[in-house]
Structures are given as structure tokens and as C-alpha cells.
Amino acid sequence: MAFGFKVKQDTASSAEKLLVVNQNRCPQNHPCPSVRVCPTGALTQSGFHAPTAEQDKCIRCGKCVKFCPMHALTLE
């Protein structure tokens, strides 16, 4: 703990991580707000279904993860 904050050690480099969509956390009843913030278009959505991540387009910047209000997106 540093200054009262827990520090999480990142064991995998960001290049090795995959963008994961947790369909159980995604409400799938509205346009996904995280799709709009993806700078490469790696996150897409068909109708109101859970978004789909195109791993080859994803640069693992984490913008979509931070923007998801339901915390349904993770980089693992």
C-alpha cells in the first residue's frame, strides 16, 4: 500500500491483454456509450445487443473500459 492506496501490479503487458465484454453486466437495452469513444472503431454494436470487440483493431487504450457505466468491459 502506498499512501493508503492499494497498488495493483500489472502482470501482463497491455499488448497481451484482450478486451472482454461481460454480457451479464451489459444491460443490452440502449446504444452502448463506450462504442462512441473507441478511437479505432474496435468496439461495435448491432442493435441493442452487447457490443463486440474486434481484437485486431483494439489498441488497448482502455477508453471504452473507463467509459462503460456498467463496468461490463475489461482488459484481461
From TrEMBL:
InterPro entries: 4Fe4S_Fe-S-bd (IPR017896), 4Fe4S_Fe_S_CS (IPR017900). Residues 49-76 form the 4Fe-4S ferredoxin-type domain. Gene3D superfamilies: 3.30.70.20. Pfam families: Fer4. This is 4Fe-4S ferredoxin-type domain-containing protein.
